[in-house]
Amino acid sequence: MKLWAGRFQKETDSLVNDFNASIDFDQRLYAQDIKGSIAHATMLGEQGIIPQEDADAIINGLKAILADIEAGEVEFSLGNEDIHMNIETILTERIGSAGKRLHTARSRNDQVAVDFRMFVKDEIPVIINQILDLEDVLIRKAEQNINTVMPGYTHMQRAQPTTFAHYMMAYANMFRRDVTRFEDCLERMDECPLGAGALATSSYPVNRERTAELLGFRKPTENSMDSVSDRDYAIEFLSACSMLMMHLSRFSEEIILWCSWEFKFVDLDDAYSTGSSIMPQKKNPDVAELVRGKTGRVYGDLVSLLTVMKGLPLAYNKDMQEDKEPVFDAIDTVEQCVPVFAAMLDTLTIRPKDMSRAASKGFINATDCADYLTKKGMPFREAYMVVGRLVNSCIKSGDTLDTLTLRDFRAISDLFDSDIYQALELKHCVGERKVYGGPSPEDTTRQIQSVKDFVAAHRPEQAQE
After folding, report:
1. Active-site residue, selected from the candidate residues 97, 155, 203, 277
2. Given this model, what pLDDT does residue 459 score?
């Protein structure tokens, strides 16, 4: 019998039962649902809303159900629609009429709101910890390659010399922002909706501060209508997941390019590559490609929930049952992608000679050549034009700036002297970029230490397994 059967004179059509049910996916909330119900029953007993012996029976019954679920001894029923009704039905079957008192002063609206909020709240430290593990990999790679010169790019054209360590710190800073976005989301969602009821609280003397405390929330939510209809935290969480995946996807694209024969800056470990069914020479970067591809599904999860919520009046609407699957999918995807990406990155081999060879082409020291003239008194725009003519001449002759003779340089400006060759040497070009945030070994070392300090300060003490 449905819990609402008193109002209805006909059984729900079987098609509607199947359409309406969410137990196939929301059973993932069983631990949060039981935890929330234990807190609610505790408060009901303390407030004298139900007899203390009934509260104790409910709490003990719920603990036993939790143990049985985790032992694989509970089978949920589609007829009971969702995880909340399934657990309440099992409880009542086990302890009798006391189980029917559990839902006193509570609606499924505030029940699902607190369950879902707790679920997301539990997963955020897991993701943060995975990102920080990835940061550890970036730190190691950077420390090993502070002097590994490579070309930096704009418009996918060789632009200026940098180092592999500087590249790694660029991504480390992206992931550092991701950590703070998840932390911001966690801080904003740290309010407990339990006790909001269907939308207008209850005439019972419920103690919302007590249930918030029991469930580890900072405080109760401020407005009961907003409490049951708010999914901002889930949308914000999906937004943070989407940005994290975007950063992983950008990094994946770099690795896909770098391990191609056209670049050959890195080699992927065999354990993180696949082959071809027909071409025996192939070594494919499938991990990076799948991370890049899975980014789209996380974007889809975000857009899905935004679209569900965009036209809903206050307070709860059944549309909001569609909130969980996108969030579950994003969590599963992110928590699968981050560790496998980190492992792939940790095991790849850097090819410094190929990076240096690429950096020696494409005139990436042309800016340094112009800066050389500027430091000798020539206005930068004039120096820019002079070096542009030199580059054009080199392209025609097949030379590089490094291979020009001093006579070639002086033919275009008498400010050039023999020290131009030191100014054009790539390690010198990188080493002179000592500006805060630049690729010089000194500042890259500072950046690495900054990320180390961030990781140490932000790693959750108790990340969920």
Report:
1. 155
2. 87
Q: Amino acid letter at 345?
A: L
Of the candidates 134, 47, 33, 15, which has an alpha carbon nearest to the alpha carbon of residue 76? 33
> Per-residue pLDDT averaged across 449-462, rounded?
88
Cα–Cα distance, 213 to 464 (Å, whole number)? 20
With 60 as the cut, is the pLDDT of residue 247 above it? yes
* Rounded Cα–Cα distance for residues 62 and 344 (Å): 43
CA distances from 453 to 338, 435, 437, 444 (A): 21, 21, 16, 14
Q: Tell me the three state secondary structure of residue 264.
A: coil
Contact 265, 355 (CB under 8 A): yes
Tell me the C-alpha distance between 254 and 422, whole Å.
Answer: 31
Distance CA(178)–CA(454), nearest Å, equals 12
5 confidence band (pLDDT: 50, 70, 90): low
> Does residue 263 or residue 464 have the better pLDDT?
263
Active site residue 166: no
**Whole-model pTM above 0.85?**
yes
Residue 281's pLDDT band, with cuts at 50, 70 and 90, is confident
Distance CA 78, CA 17 (A): 8
Compute the distance between CA of residue 254 and CA of residue 348 in angstroms, rounded to an integer: 13
Q: 326 CB contacts (<8 Å, ≥6 apart)?
A: 238, 300, 301, 302, 304, 305
8 A C-beta contact, residue 323 and residue 237: no
Average pLDDT, the chain: 94
Is 413 one of the catalytic residues?
Answer: no
What three-state secondary structure class fits 278? coil
Catalytic residue among 77, 260, 276, 397: 276
Residue the block writes with tokens 């994003």: 330
pLDDT at residue 463 tops 60: no
Read off the pLDDT of each residue in 174-194 and give the average, rounded to a whole number.
Answer: 98
